[in-house]
Write the structure tokens for this entry.
Amino acid sequence: DTAVSQTPKYLVTQMGNDKSIKCEQNLGHDTMYWYKQDSKKFLKIMFSYNNKELIINETVPNRFSPKSPDKAHLNLHINSLELGDSAVYFCASSHNGGGKAETQYFGPGTRLLVL
Amino acid sequence: DQQVKQNSPSLSVQEGRISILNCDYTNSMFDYFLWYKKYPAEGPTFLISISSIKDKNEDGRFTVFLNKSAKHLSLHIVPSQPGDSAVYFCAASAANSGTYKYIFGTGTRLKVLA
């Protein structure tokens, strides 16, 4: 049973399109995250939701919009895709440590290529 | 401004020997550190962590050392095995920041030679 799953695993699309990546966790965690790993291999936090509430919103273009229908799901919608959006996007989740950092569990990643 | 740095992009070690992966950080507010291991086409998986109240944490073949005055941590793997070949990321957080935010290094690719 996959703890943190993402769909799709690969996504190839044209510039200007709108696409969504889905993430689900079955660990019962309260907090979910989206990370972006770019071509230089930097793994950077984009967003975090705790119990469906946005708690981290890094400097990310507003073309990126996370949506959390419930605490087991955190989807990432990207409007007007640009070449620079090509990257690997990782979803992660963790238990709510009451303000303390907890171990984050990662999904397998979604490889997005914008042509 | 990269607050967590892994200055060695790659490391090769003979099977059975010790692997030492290094990580430096600049933010003195960081007080919780983790190491993640990543295989190709998979997400990072948690390996070991250390809180700043300790200077060493051991789990089987893996030991993490923390030198707070030098703002440096290292991961020791002994003995190294071919299955340890992967990319290793260190990550740091201000544990009581309330935002569950980790800053990751750029990773070190470890290759264990049989």
